[in-house]
Hints:
By secondary structure, this protein is of the alpha/beta class. It contains 15 helices and eleven strands. The chain has a six-stranded mixed sheet with strand order 8-7-6-9-10-11. NAD(+) binds at residues 192, 223.
Amino acid sequence: xxxxxxxxxxxxxxxxxxxxxxxxxxxxxxxxxxxxxxxxxxxxxxxxxxxxxxxxxxxxxxxxxxxxxxxxxxxxxxxxxxxxxxxxxxxxxxxxxxxxxxxxxxxxxxxxxxxxxxxxxxxxxxxxxxxxxxxxxxxxxxxxxxxxxxxxxxxxxxxxxxxxxxxxxxxxxxxxxxxxxxxxxxxxxxxxxxxxxxxxxxxxxxxxxxxxxxxxxxxxxxxxxxxxxxxxxxxxxxxxxxxxxxxxxxxxxxxxxxxxxxxxxxxxxxxxxxxxxxxxxxxxxxxxxxxxxxxxxxxxxxxxxxxxxxxxxxxxxxxxxxxxxxxxxxxxxxxxxxxxxxxxxxxxxxxxxxxxxxxxxxxxxxxxxxxxxxxxxxxxxxxxxxxxxxxxxxxxxxxxxxxxxxxxxxxxxxxxxxxx
Length: 420
């Protein structure tokens, strides 16, 4: 069955799982049930294009497990999406939800498409068709969708409306990350980036680094990277480097985070912000800084890059940005780079998504201050648990975080047993 999910991203998730399974001494006979997804769906999404053609886009949804509650995970529209990547992201989401002690299993979905090539009408058509194809497999108590790369609040509103039209009643709790006017929660948009910055400050406290005057480089400048940069800058950290898929800038004197975010929101990318301070996107990550925040895609910190990093903290805003080979090299270095692993560092998004789901179910909504206060308290609990586990077992933060996540899922499966 493993051959169904072939690909470098799934291979990375599988390697991480077996390392944790060895660490926890999980018997070989019990590993497949913990690793392999419960359900994988592949659909065709035909839509009418503006030029009169009909195009068919492949869509996916993987539900890793439903042991602790409904599956939960984002939906990605990107040209390189495949079933292996989606399965890996669902596995990581399972560990992330378990680590945060949320009543969810992990899920992920996606469509193989470059959304930037679609008109607004085409994007709406594809979003609605994808949700239509998923209706037999999702629901507020089965699988709750959220935005991810290439999707946003508007796409979630189309998802929710499509599902609601088929049910005959409004069902806001079928998705999270919606506009506030359609049942979304205050604070969701900035939650992941806010969490990255919040935990970077926790790491700075642990390492006795004064945020005022500290430096940061943010790789990836979508929603997560932009809000991480704003959150870091708000506490006095100097943003010295940023990059996305279109451009990279570095200036040891500092860059104006608000100006960069304003430009990216206005134009959709960093390209064109300045003719000065331009640098190669990979080279920007090699520059000296206190905090390096990879906030884009998987596998950007490979073995070669790990050897030359000059940061003190890696705050993983993206899912799976550091390969297992890079992890080994970071562990062997004698300068002690402090890694805040992805399933802890970027958990702010799913935590506030959980808050949104709860508010929708109760039809009772909280203020932004209540949301952010609850978020920071949840992140603090997870942070303390991971740091204590790493210290107790003499392992890396990543091993500690993943061990907690896998262990909680394993114990729940053992307690429930195997039906029939």
